[in-house]
Every structure is written in C-alpha cells, then in structure tokens.
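Hi L., both proteins are below.
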Amino acid sequence: MHIFRSFSAAVAACVGIVSLGSCNQEDMANQGFQETSKLRVITRTEGEDTPPKEGIIYIFDQKGLCSGIITPEEVKNHSTIPAQPGTVDIISVGSNNLNAYNLPDKDKVNDTTIIKLNSGQTQSDLILGTATITLAEGETTQLNMSTTREVICINSITAEKIPSDVIRAEVIIGPVYKNIRLNGKYTNDTDSIRIMLARDAEEGKWTLQGDSIFSLPTKGNPSFVFRLKMANSTEEYTYQRSSPLIKNRFVHLNLVYQEGLKTYVTGPNFTDPEWEGTDTIAYQFTKNDKTRSDSLIHLKAGSTYDRYFVVSVDKATRTAVLLRRTKDTGILSDSIMNAKAGSINKPHWATSGWRLPTQEECQFILEKGNVEVSNGKYKEVSDLVIPGTYYCTSNNKLATMTLEIPDMKKLSNRRITLNTDAGYSQDYIFRPVIEISY
C-alpha cells in the first residue's frame, strides 16, 4: 500500500526574500522600491529531513493584511523577492498535493481563511507552520520555522470472516472536522469519511486497497459504522470509540465477524518515527450487534425516497444523492450556510454532510422537480420546486441558478439560467443535497 511520505517537511528548505509591498519583483521594480532587508525562510517538520513536494508561504503585516506570497513555483525555484524591514507574521502551507486545495489570492486572504478543497478532491498530507519575525534594516535574517502535520492517516483496514453473501463492504468514520483555517484552528463544521473496502480473493478478507486516506482529526470520540451490503439487504454494525483520533497519527482498523461474544480492544502502538504513533482499533462483532438492517431499496433519479427527491443514482456502487425536503432563505454568508447545513437532520444511510448541489445537479432538480400551484401561490414540499434563484456550485465556486416559468399555464416550460459570478442574497434559496449509500 502506498503511503504519501514524500511531503515530510512543510515547505522545501525554501530560500525566499519576502516582499511586503508586492508579490513579485517586477511590480516592485516598477514602483521604484528599494530593497532594505532580506529574509531566508527554512521550514521543517520536527524530526524529518526529507523535503516536501509542494509549499506556499503567506506573509502578513501587523495589521493582518497579506503583504506578500511566496508561490509554489517560487519556493521550488528559490526565487528572491525584495522586502521592507519590520515585523511580519508568516504562515506556510505544505502538502503532497497542493493542487487539491483552492488556496486564496493575496487580496482575499487572512489568517482565519479556510483552506478549502477543490471540487472532487480529497484531503492530503496537510502541514502548516506559523512564525513571527522582525526584519532588521539592511540585513538578511534567517528563520528556521517548525511546522505541524494537521491530519490523520488511515493506512490499514481489514475485515475478516465476513459472510460469503456480502457483495459490498464499507466503513464510515465520523464526525471529523471538515475545515481548517490558515491559523490551524478548525471550523465547527463536521463531516464523515466513507471508505470502500475490496475483497481479497486469495485470503478472503475485505481490506483498504490503494492509497492511504488522509483526514482532519475527529471532533470528539468517533463512531465507526461498518456497512455490509447483500443482494437484497443492507446491515450496519457500529463501534463507538472512547477517545478522539488526533492529528499526526496513523490509524489501523481491524474488524472480525465472530459467531460468539463481542469484545472491544483499543490501544496505541508507537511505531513510526515520522508520525507520533498509530491508533489501532480492533472490533469483533456478531450478528446480534447489528445496529440497522433494511431490505434493498430501488431508487431512480427523478423519483422520491422517504419523501426526498432523488437527484442521481449510481447502481454500481449503490449510492444516491438526495435533495433536502424544504428550503431556507436569508443565507447571507459562508458561515451561516455551513452552520445551517450542519443543523439539518440527515436521512438514513447518509455517508456525508449536506452540501450545495453542483451545477449539473441543480439543473436536474429545476428541470425535473414538480412545480405545484395552490391558490395562485407556489407551494414546496419534498420533490417540489418553486421559481426563484437557488444556490449551487460551479467549478468549486459559489454560483446560482434561476428558475423562471413565463407562462403559469405551461409549468413544463421552464427557463433556467446559471450565474457563476454569484454572491449572497436574502432571497436566494438554500436547498442542499446529501449522498446516501443504500
């Protein structure tokens, strides 16, 4: 199994002379700026010697404004940039896949900015570092900067003695923190990790195959939901851990199906010098430990399930995307939207939290959702939609999609338009979606 260890330091022994007035030398030269001090930044994760794969450095003045960025390319090429003397705060972001993140530009960043994942990307080996330093006039100052790994690494899952009629097996771990800020503080939003297992034909085990899985730590004590799918039913078995999964540690999960009494065993195993240790969770379970069981449901996009509108279905993986039954308005910021999404009850078999529909999903909802007119007014319940402007995402950025019905007598004649340069409005409709595994 491949474990990402190539990014062991947060930013490559980077030699950069930091600009406090601009992000590149050309702009500074055009402004007639005279270099009066220099800064050499070397960031390294404790106990690690190998260089990282990618890194970016933000420089902030004492007003909290970003006054310069050392880009990944500049870090790689050891570019030099002019600097002014004074006290600066430095934040470094490193990763084995920096392209996974939608990192902010200079004029849109502060130390509380959320490090967001790009659409379709998963968490990587994320490493952060912070420091404050004063640049003396006319001198070159070298800063040796310590960094911290902010993620856990799930690199081993085995499930043994699983009944032969099981055709799919998966593990869901949560709650985990969903977002982290540049300053290393988490937001209140949570999510869960859904991991598909594969059956080893030779050994008869179900295991995690492919790359290791990185995640932000758990918020509190996590639960591990082991879901078994048979041809005509689905069963769940849940183990509640009595302590959190903390950052900079490997996680091993061992599951054994036993025809007998259940036992629970947990314990740390400090084995890897690059990480602080390994949390090994061993769970033995029997048929009587089942926490939920349902017969197989047959879902179809455009229909309803448990009064939820079905947006899409993947029959191969037995997953589906459902639309929230009701709407909200008055969502005027990212934080309000995240708080609202976190407070909505989830349907059975949910694998993650509520999120905005993508452009394609929103288009399907507004095209296929039923429009009901009652006493001359629109009414919205479960699969019903009303004319208006809906929040969605396009290329991982906030967008809106507007539904218009020019002729009230022809409800199927719908005009749908996308706005990719959207902001927030009191009247925009918040109708999130969620994925389930059935």
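That was the first. Here is the second:
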Amino acid sequence: MKHLALLAILLACSGAVAAQDALAGKRLYFDAARVRGTAASCVDCHFGLPGAFGIGSAANDPARVQRAIDTIAQMSLFRGRLTQTDYADIAAYLGRPDVPSPNLRVSTSGAALDRIDFGMRPAGSTATGQLRLANTGQLPLRFTSAARIVGEHAADYTITASNCTDVFAPGASCSIDVRFAPPPGASGSRRAALQIEHDWIGGLAAAALLGQAEAMGDPAAPPIGPPGGGAEGGSAGGSGGGAAQLGWLLVLLLAVALRGRTARRGSPTVMHSR
C-alpha cells in the first residue's frame, strides 16, 4: 500500500510538472518575441492551435521542435534564442493546448475595447472613463506594476481610482477610473495611454485615451438680434458691438424713411358725409 501511495504521489507530481511545462510552452508559443527577444512568435506563423503547417506533429516531441528550428529557413529567427527546456515546454503545449491558464480580458466604459474616447470637452472642464479587466481563465495572474498614464498629453489625464493590484484570481474583475481634464488654453486632439503590467502573455494591458479640447474664449459669430444687453446676446462691446449698433440704426432709419414716403404718396381717403 505504501508503494502504491508513493507511486500515486509521483504520478501527481509528474502531472503537475507536465502541466507547468505546457503552461510555459503556451507562453512561449504566443509571446516568444517579448519573452525571448525573437523577431516573432510561433503564433504569428502557425496561428492558434491546432495550428497550420503541420505544427501539431511535434506534440510532445521536443526533438522535432528543435529539428524544425534548425532546418527550416523561416524558423531561423528562433535559433540561439530558445533552450532545450523551451523546446520541451513548446512540445508539451502542442500536446496539451487546453492546459489551464490565465485569460485576461480588457474592455472599457465606451463602445471600443481598446480605447476610451472622451469626445469634445471645453478646456477647463472634466469627463470620466473606465478601463475594465477580467480574468476569465482557470489560473491567477499577477499585476506587476501600478496603473500609469503615458503619452504626449498624459498631464491631461488622471487616475482617480484603481483596485487592480497584486494577484488577479480566476473569475476576478477590477477597474481603473480615469478623468480627462484639458487645461485652460488647450485645444485640439489630446492623446495618451493607460497601462498596467502583468506576468502573463503580452505583459501589458492598455487602452488609448482620446479627447478633444475646445479652447474657451474662441471668437464666435455675433448673435442675431438687437444690440445691447439681455438674455439673448449679452452686451455688445468694442468695435464689433459698435458695428452691430450702427447696422441696427441704419435699419431703423430706412424703415422710418419708407414709412414717410408711403404717407406722402397718400393713403385711400375716407370721405365723410355731411
């Protein structure tokens, strides 16, 4: 019985190791360019498993993975970049593409998944948006940095709240709130990016931050209406106000002149009987 128990423990441990190898292989398959500094990753040519170009034939066969890299010209970019352990891990993943893993999903408070568009905002005003993250996989991942804002107009954006920290368990979700506040005098496109690093494929969750600033005090077309103050157009001032007043004065004078001219021509005379 003791021997059977020991065998069961060894089998369980070997299964865990195999699963870990397959998990590491999945990371390399999708992310070798970032993890190992190669010019591309396996997925860029072979796509998602079962994959193209017969890659499935190397399942659980590290020697075949290595031979393909050593002999196929298109795979030369991996030469000298991958180790024997890497070959074994990739082969393990090819043999077990359904290995449990994290799965980070990114969405936003807007219609697009990869950007938050705040639209046109008057300079000096504010608007808010939100980046939402969810782990829909079977294993946890870990956030390895705090959320940050980078880019040309990063100062126009502020992180106001975030609960995306440390270990991100399966089924968990979190969010990062952002405020857009173009400063007085700003105008035109205001671009930045919201980022947070993690330890899974891609290594970075991000969303573009897009906004338009409308400068306050831009000259506007004069209101149509009588000069002077009031709820409609405000008080006229400067040369523009004087021109508007002169225009209305000319209109009034013309109306008076036309009325006098009509009176001189005569209106129908009403005869009174005596």
